[in-house]
Design brief:
By secondary structure, this protein is an alpha+beta fold. It has three helices and two strands, in the order H-E-E-H-H. The protein has one domain (2-73).
């Protein structure tokens, strides 16, 4: 569950930063829970639609998402 939640947050954050993202499963989830690859391609300028919800989920479940930290630290 945690792996899927963090991968979903990563994909939403990347989309807000202007990337089109795909989540690709390598192996069936019954064999390995950490087998998701995020593929991203920059297609437009950044916008902030999903980031507040991503930050709220990270706070609610008490984890630190490195991608969100990097986005917060980057100049606009």
């Amino acid at each position: 569950m945690c792996a899927l939640l963090t991968d979903s947050i990563r994909a939403a954050a990347l989309e807000d930063m202007g990337y089109r993202t795909d989540m690709i499963e390598f192996v069936d989830m019954e064999h390995s829970p950490k087998n998701i690859m995020l593929r991203a391609r920059r297609v437009r300028p950044p916008r902030e639609r999903e980031l507040p919800a991503c930050r709220a989920l990270a706070e609610k479940y008490g984890f630190q998402q490195t991608l969100l930290t990097l986005i917060d630290q980057s100049p606009t």
